[in-house]
Amino acid sequence: FLLGVLVNVTCGNSSTTPWSPCSEDCGVGISTRHVETTVGCQDLNSVRLCENRKCVKDEEDIIQPMKKYPLNLYKHPKGHGCRKMQKMGQSRIRLGPCVSRRLYRPKICGLCQNSNINCVPSLSTTIQVEFLCPLNSGDPISFIEAGYDLWDNSWLDPIDQELLHSHNIQMENKFIAVQWILKCSCGS
């Protein structure tokens, strides 16, 4: 009530910025966007996980984007500067003690013929990934480490919830936004 008058404010989005580029050249990173709302409502910032390409380690164990390695391993379509998409096999996302509940078949960007240009997502969407986390384990995003890949295909076994329950390990579900790459192109 404001001076005896009921004030009913309806909040809605007035504008949304595009997602920022991934914060890392390779491996898991963060992408953000800003959502402006109507007057009298709180503006929002959205965060999602992203990965343009996998990282590899060079001879000195320094993490490098995959573009450093020979391009002649890949066939480029005639007239195209990059092997645009690399389809991965079944994978999960693992962030510290948290793991995605289901398996995914993600795509990542490939390599450009010109090593000074990055192959980056040109079309993507955002999916909500359900994670299974130990109770009170904190925010899964806090477990992100530079140089580690977002998609993990080393552990594909189904999650044995009966085993967790029998060991009195309490779990909770958490949902995290993740970039889902649909198309890549060579950009600057």
Give the topology.
Blueprint: E1 13-16, E2 29-37, E3 44-50, E4 55-57, E5 63-65, E6 85-87, E7 92-95, E8 98-100, E9 107-109, E10 118-134, E11 151-152, H1 161-166, E12 171-187
Antiparallel strand pairs: 1-2, 2-3, 4-5, 6-9, 7-8, 7-11, 8-10, 10-12
Give the overall form: flat
Any low-confidence stretches, pLDDT <50, length ≥5?
1-6, 61-74
Strand content: 35-45%
- Derived from helix and strand composition plus strand pairing, the structural class reads mainly beta
Beginning-to-end CA distance, first to last residue: 54 Å
Q: What about the largest sheet?
A: 5 strands, antiparallel
Instruction: Give the number of helices.
Output: 1
- As a whole number of angstroms, the C-alpha radius of gyration is 20 Å
Share in helix? under 10%
The helix-strand sequence is: EEEEEEEEEEEHE
Tally of structural domains: 1
Mean pLDDT: 77
Q: Write down how many β-strands occur, each being a DSSP E stretch of 2 or more residues.
A: 12
Main sheet strand line-up: 11-7-8-10-12
Organism: Phlebotomus papatasi
GO molecular function: heparin binding; integrin binding
Keywords: Signal
GO biological process, one term: signal transduction
Summarize the structure.
The protein is mainly beta and 188 residues long.
Q: How would you describe what is shown here?
A:
It is a single chain. The protein is flat. The chain has one helix at residues 161-166, and strands spanning 13-16, 29-37, 44-50, 55-57, 63-65, 85-87, 92-95, 98-100, 107-109, 118-134, 151-152, 171-187. The strands form four sheets. Strands 11-7-8-10-12 form a five-stranded antiparallel β-sheet, with no helix packed on it. A three-stranded antiparallel β-sheet has the order 1-2-3, with no helix packed on it. Strands 4-5 form a two-stranded antiparallel ribbon. The chain has one domain (14-71, 81-186). It is mainly beta and 188 residues long. The protein is built from one helix and twelve strands; from the N terminus they run βββββββββββαβ. The termini are far apart.
